[in-house]
Amino acid sequence: MTNIILSGGSGTRLWPISRTLFPKQYNKLFQGRSLFQKTYERNRNHCDKSIIITNQEQYFMALDQLDEIGARAEFLLEPVGRNTAPAIALAALMVDPEEILLVTPSDHLVNDETAYGAVLTVAKKLAGQGYLVTFGITPEYPETGYGYIEADGNDVRSFKEKPDRQTAQRYIDQGNYYWNSGIFCFSAKSFLEELQRYAPEIYQQSKTAFEKAKRDQAVRIDLDDMLAIPEDSIDYAVMEKSTKVKVIPSTIGWSDMGSFESLYEVLPKDTSGNTTESNTLHLDSRDNLIIGHERMIATVDVEDLMIVDTADALLIAKKGSGQKVKQIVARLKEEKNDLHNIHMTAHRPWGTYTILEESA
Amino acid sequence: MTNIILSGGSGTRLWPISRTLFPKQYNKLFQGRSLFQKTYERNRNHCDKSIIITNQEQYFMALDQLDEIGARAEFLLEPVGRNTAPAIALAALMVDPEEILLVTPSDHLVNDETAYGAVLTVAKKLAGQGYLVTFGITPEYPETGYGYIEADGNDVRSFKEKPDRQTAQRYIDQGNYYWNSGIFCFSAKSFLEELQRYAPEIYQQSKTAFEKAKRDQAVRIDLDDMLAIPEDSIDYAVMEKSTKVKVIPSTIGWSDMGSFESLYEVLPKDTSGNTTESNTLHLDSRDNLIIGHERMIATVDVEDLMIVDTADALLIAKKGSGQKVKQIVARLKEEKNDLHNIHMTAHRPWGTYTILEESA
Q1: Do the beta carbons of residue B162 and residue B63 sit within 8 Å?
Q2: Strands A313-318 and B74-78, how do they pair?
C-alpha cells in the first residue's frame, strides 16, 4: 500500500501560526513534531511507500522535515493547485495500477492509532476488491463545518453538504451519518477507471500532464499542463457519482485542525487559575486560549479570548470565532500584505509554539 | 525661577511600555518626544534653570534625552527614593534661598500651555510673597484615583484623600474641589522653613545628607545619609500642615498619565471601523484601545480591550481595569522576573510606540 500525502494546503484558519508559505502542517505543535511528520509516521506503519503531493515552494521544507525523522518519499510537485481530483489522479499514475493507495491530508490528527490501524485493515481489503473507500468519522457533536456521509453499513446512501445546526443535530440523532474526513483508500486502477468514467476531462488532462512532466528529484508538472486540468474535488468528481464507493465508520480520535478551537482541543495544556505558568501572568482572567511564542503575555480581567502570538503578528479573537480567521488572511492578501505569506521576522523559521495556559 | 523635575518614578501602571529601568516618562509617546522632554521644555519657557531629581540608573537616559533637545540641567541623584518631601528639600538646598522653585513631576501632560503660563504667573507672585502654592486642577469628572483640595478662592480649606465614587461626585457638584496635581511653587526659603517647622527630622537629615553629598557631574547623595531621612510626601509633611499654603485653580488640560486609559485619552488616534489602519486589521471588533509596536495586530469579534504590545511583553486587559496593571508588575517583581525591570529584547531601546487604532 502507498500513502499519498496531500500537503499543498495553506491552513488560513490558523493564521498567524499558519502562513501561505509556511502552512500549519509544518508547524511543530506536537512535542517537536509537525502534523506533516506525524501523518507520515502514522501511515508509514501501514504503507511501504509515501508520495508527497505539494508545491515547489514547500518542497525543501517538506524534505527537511522528512530528513529530521529519517524518512524518504517520492514527490509530486504541482505548479498550482487544482483541488484533490487532479492531485490524486497524478499520484495514481505514478504507481503500478494494482497498487492500493491510502490518500491522506497532511494536516489532520488521529489520536487513536490502534483503531486507525483496524480501520485501515478493512479499508485495504475493500480496496483490494475494487471499491473506492472513504473514511466516515463518527461525529462527536453536531459540527456545521464538515460535510456528512449518510451510510447504510459500509454502503453510502448519500453525501451531504455542510448542514445547518438543526440538520447536523438530526444527523447525530439518526446515528448513521459520519463526518467526511477526506481520507480515502482504493487501488490506482479502480480510482482512475472511475475518474475516466465520471470526469473524463480530468482523467485525460491529468494523463497528458503526467506524461509530459519533468522527472528529476521529483515529478514536476508543467504549469500550462496543470492549468489544462479542470479543477475539482475527488468528492464531486468521483465519490458522489461512483457506485463502487464504500464508507468505513471510524472512531479514531480524528481532528482536522481546522481552527484554533480544534487545535487547542488536542494540545497539551497547563491549566490553572491566576498563577504564572511558563511565560504568562493572569490577573482575574479565565477561559482564555493562549498560544504563545517567546513573549510574556499578561492578562487582566479578560475571558473567552483566543490569543495567538507570533514573532510578527498577533491575533486576538473571541473564542468560537475561529472560523472567521481566514477572512483576516483574505484581507491581508487583498491588501498585498506579505504577512499572509511569510513570517517576516521569524526567529524560528520552522515554528515551535506552545500552549501557554488556559486560565480556568 | 528654577524648575525642579521629579523624575525617579517607574510608572508601573503603564507596564509593559513602562519598566523600572525605563519608566514611562522616557517613552517617546508624543511625536518623538517623551513626557520628560515635554516637561522640561514646557517649564523652561518660564524658568531660568532646571534641576532633575532622579536615580543613578536613569541618569544617562535623562542626559541623553536632554541632549536630544539641546537642553542642560543640574542633576540631583538619589540612591533610593524617600518620597517627595526629602527630594524637594535636597533640591531646595541646592539653590539660593530666595530662588522661586517650580516643582513638577516629569510624567504629567499639560495640553493648554497658555493657561498654564497664566497660572504660573499667579503662582510665582504668591510664592514671592512667601506662600507655598499648590496647583488645583479643575476636575473634569468624579475621579476616585486622585486626592482633592477643598478651596476657598486661593485659600485651602482642607486636603482630601482619594474619595469613593459618591464623595467624588459631591466634590464635583460643590464646585470648589480640585484635583491635587503634585505641582508646587514656593521659594526655597519658605519651603525649608515650613519643613523645619512641621517635619524637623526630614529637614535636618536632608541638610546633613546634602552637605555630605559628592559633587561631580551631579550632586550625589550617599545611601546611608539618604536612608537616614524619614520617608514622606510633601503633602503629608508640609502642605497639609502649613498655614502658608495657597491653591490656584487651574484649567490647563492636565493629565497624570496614570493608566493606559488616561494615556490613550491624550494620544493621537486613527479612528475607524473594520478597516486596516497602519498595522492592524479588525474584523467585527470595536472600542478597543491598541498601543502597538512593530507587530501586526489582528482582532476578531472582540471589544473593550486594552492591547499593549511591546517587543518582549504583551498586555491584554479589559478597558477600565488599567489600575490593576501595577499588580502585574508587583507579581513580576515577586517572581524575580526581569521583565518588570527592562526590555529584554528591546529593538528600540528608547521606545517609540504608536496608537494603532481605536476601532469605533
Answers
A1: no
A2: unpaired
Which of B298, B316, B331 lies at the smallest CB-CB distance from A302? B316
Q: What is the distance, to the nearest Å, from the Cα of residue B182 to the centroid of all Cα atoms in its chain?
A: 8
From the list B51, B8, B29, B43, the residue with the least C-alpha distance to B183 is: B43
Sheet containing A296-300: which strands, arranged edge to edge? Answer: A280-283, A296-300, B313-318, B305-309, B288-292, B354-359, B271-272
Residue-wise pLDDT for B77-93, tens only, equals 999 999 999 999 999 99
pLDDT score at A258: 81
pTM of the model: 0.76
**Which residues of B are less than 8 Å from A302 in CB distance?**
305, 316-318
CB pairs under 8 A between A and B: 121
Indicate if the alpha-carbon torsion angle B42, B47, B49, B54 is positive or negative.
Answer: negative
User: Which three cell numbers mark A136?
Assistant: 466516515
Q: With an 8 Å Cβ cutoff, is B330 touching chain A?
A: no
Of the residues B296, B310, B347, the best mutation for testing chain A's interface (the one with the most A CB atoms within 10 Å of its CB) is B296
Place of cell 503634585: B182
Enter the ipTM: 0.73
Going from the C-alpha of A79 to that of each of A1, A56, B74, B360, the distances in angstroms are 26, 7, 68, 43
Answer whether A335 sits within 8 Å of B276, measured CB to CB.
Answer: yes
In whole angstroms, give the CA distance from residue B64 to residue B44: 17
Which tens digits make up the pLDDT trace of A136-167? 999 999 988 899 999 999 999 999 999 999 99
Side chain identity at residue B210, one-letter code: F
